[in-house]
Amino acid sequence: MQQIMSCSARASAVLRALRAAPPVTARLSRHCRQDGQLSTGGNLRAFSTSAQPESVDPQATSQQSRSVYGASFVMDTSRMQRRQKEIEQVAFAKDSAGPPPTEEKTNEVATKEQLAKLFRELPGHVSTTIAWQWHVQGKLKPTVDVPRKKDELEEWRNTFLDIYRETFDEYRRFRRSEVSRRRRTRRNFAVNNMGFKEAFESYEVNTEEFGDEHRQKSIVEDCWKAEYYELLHRKAREDIPEREHLAARTDRMADIVAGALRAHYTEQNRPVLTHELADYENPYMMKHSAMERLLQERCVRNRLDERCLPRLMERMPSMAKVRTQAQLPPEVLEPLAAFRGDVRWHFDERERLSQKLEAVSTAFDALEQSGGDAAAVAASLPENSGPPSPDQVPGVYHPWRNHVGFQTAVPRGTAGGINFGKPDSNLDEQILRLRYPTLQRVAHTLPADPKWRAQVSRTIQVLERSKHWDYASKLNAINMMKEVYDSMKSSDTYTRELDKKLVVNRVPSHLKRKYAADKEYIKTFPRKFRPRKSMTWYRPSLTTPKPKITKPKK
User: Fold this and answer.
1) Cβ within 8 Å of residue 465, ≥6 positions away
2) Model pTM score
């Protein structure tokens, strides 16, 4: 109870001090004039009301601090009230004045905006005529009221042209600065192009088939299969012996039948390697792959061993023996057959046997139809057939003999990727069947002019022997050259015009006017000019150390 009485007494004393004190604003101004500074502590602000000496009574100081706290509270409250009244007065003034008037753009400013927008949308395609026409028709935004009277319209046109030049100069300066800024920019391609990255989850193989024990068993199994395939070929050579080495090249019926039977027997019993899935027709390649896998995984210890591995396999006696008995690939035998002139032949003995049996059936049919006439039977054979048909090459008129050869057995194509199994184009198939891919298919309908005709013919001869051009590019070059020469005038026309402009015996004009005013110079050639020109040897280079020796003139 005594505390409550003391608090109420203290509050009444503060109120009496506030009534006796001058207003807050007067005290604040006097304080600013006397002290010149504010003392701030925490979230409360205390203002000194009078200049006091440094030595002050402690009781007076405590009373003053309590009175200062009440003064700062009243001052903050009065400041907030004044601020609220100012805000209300400003809002009332805006409501009473109504909406602010919009600043209407002048015609010059609007026209400048029109042209700037037009230059940005159609850079380099806006002339003064087009800009003025669209401006008058009202196609540009923002719209501008164009005067209708003739005099005013002419005056406005002059103003429009001035605005156009000014806006165009500003746009050009802007574009130049932008282009220069872009060119000065140093691009860091290593940072800008990080590439596509996708985190792929890797799963470890934990099945028994991929363990060390199963891998060892699969390697041993492949070695056994390679040995078995080698013995299979040896057994086939013993049971179906070959008359002589490469006897099938003689193209005798007995040798072809024996080779076909051996190929069929070995193919039906050919194994497939399982450790690294592989299928080899040659026993040497199958044994080479199995032995290489065994040495690579079980014997190689470091890089030195890895480098010595191929030489070791070449010197192994078992590998050398199988290599000597291996069959030659088609890349070796087919060029020999083509050079000999065979047009009905195949590397595989089974395919060749089918060709021979087809010819035999054709001979029997001719024998039955002719009643035993030997001449008719001989004429029916493929070797003695008449002139070739023009459509022997599909899609091309090709009536020439001995141009179409046998079908190659060389493997081609890709073993994987998006082109795996993709068929060859028609042109590639035709080239594979041609013995010599000449350019006879385009050596027709040459230009009628002799000079143009000679140039096209010479180009065909050069491209036929060119090794660095693909066949399709050669055909396109010759066809395009013929089209160009067909659209040109005759060579005599160009020769006459060049003779007029490039006279051979030309003299200075002042000498011609003085000594030969009525003379006309024509091109003349010396005696035996053409033989000497045809036999002239052109020096291939100006830096030749030793020029070609020529016979001295007599």
Assistant:
1) none
2) 0.51
